[in-house]
Specification:
single chain, about 290 residues, Rossmann fold, Calcium-transporting ATPase, cytoplasmic domain N, 7-stranded mixed β-sheet, 6-stranded antiparallel β-sheet, 13 helices, about 40% helix, elongated, binds adenosine-5'-diphosphate, binds magnesium ion
């Protein structure tokens, strides 16, 4: 869905690939001092791929991947799509899943070939008292220190493998962060992903402040908390899980490459999904205000 779009700065916004919902949006840009950036799909491409499978002692990596892929095939999450595609490539056709459930911000569950599967964060497995054996805990730590996401697979009360899913930082993100800083804004990286992966991505783009392991429903509370500290907050996001935070923020910027829900929630849409347009938007609207006055 496209918001009823009005173009800023007499067509300049359109040239820059920025759609704005209404002129009242511009006013907030004057006071913004903090910009909260969602990680996956905003700072990174969100084009995830399966990098490797580390199986626990005695497990067959291809078989674990086939079963995990079958559960993830029922999910729309970018991590799930990467795992399902990787599973098809390595194991062929995927079996059916029964009793599927998506556990937002944690992973998925379902029954495949009679096995009750859990696929997701270590925290999801922990809810069922399933711990990672040393070799899988090591694989998880190694993956996270390089900025990748470690997805654990378990059934029958035992962890079977860690699937390493990697994303790439968009080539324009570091420059965009530098431009946002140049406008006097403090960037903060916000994600549901783990702290180590978030730190690795933050370091690549020049962000010092990271708020990680935030459940989807809690992103909006992070924005409120920052506002409670007296900050005026712009939020940039792409996902369904960012929508409430985009609405709460003083200025919500949605990635045009993201979900319709995020685009509806944002005050501005960055049509091309290039984070540099966030800096362009703030600069342009401040300039437009300057000329209106
Ligand atoms: P982000 O805030 O980075 O957009 P999400 O809130 O959607 O991420 O997810 C947070 C974390 O939950 C992911 O990094 C991943 O570890 C885990 N997760 C979510 N959905 C899935 C899934 N379908 N399969 C495996 N892990 C998942
Ligand atoms: Mg996202």
């Amino acid at each position: 869905a496209t918001p009823t779009a009005l173009l800023v700065g007499t067509g300049r916004g359109a040239q820059l690939g920025i759609l704005i919902k209404g002129p009242e949006v511009l006013e907030s840009t004057r006071r913004i001092d903090t910009v909260v950036l969602d990680k996956t799909g905003t700072v990174t491409s969100g084009q995830m791929s399966l990098a490797r499978v580390v199986a626990a002692e005695g497990e067959d990596a291809t078989e674990v991947l086939r079963l995990a892929g079958a559960v993830e095939d029922a999910s729309e999450h970018p991590i799930a799509k990467a795992i399902a595609a990787g599973a098809r490539a390595q194991a062929g056709a995927l079996p059916e899943v029964a009793d599927f459930a998506n556990l937002e911000g944690l992973g998925v569950q379902g029954v495949v070939d009679g096995r009750a599967m859990l696929v997701g964060r270590a925290a999801l497995l922990a809810e069922w008292s399933v711990e990672l054996p040393a070799e899988l805990a090591d694989a998880k730590a190694a993956a996270e220190s390089e900025g990748a996401t470690a997805v654990a697979v378990a059934w029958d009360g035992r962890a079977r493998a860690v699937l390493v899913v990697s994303d790439t930082v968009k080539p324009t993100s570091a420059e965009a962060v530098a431009q946002l800083r140049g406008l006097g804004l403090t960037p903060i990286l916000l994600t549901g992903d783990n702290e180590a992966a978030a730190r690795a991505v933050a370091a690549k783009v020049g962000i010092d402040e990271v708020i990680a392991e935030v459940l989807p429903a809690d992103k909006v509370d992070v924005v409120s908390r920052l506002q409670g500290e007296g900050r005026v907050v712009a939020m940039v996001g792409d996902g369904v899980n960012d929508a409430a935070a985009l609405v709460r923020a003083d200025l919500g910027l949605a990635m045009g490459t993201g979900t319709d829900v995020a685009i509806e929630a944002g005050d501005l849409t960055l049509v091309r999904g290039d984070l540099r347009a966030a800096a362009d938007a703030i600069r342009l609207s401040r300039r437009t205000l300057g000329t209106i006055k």
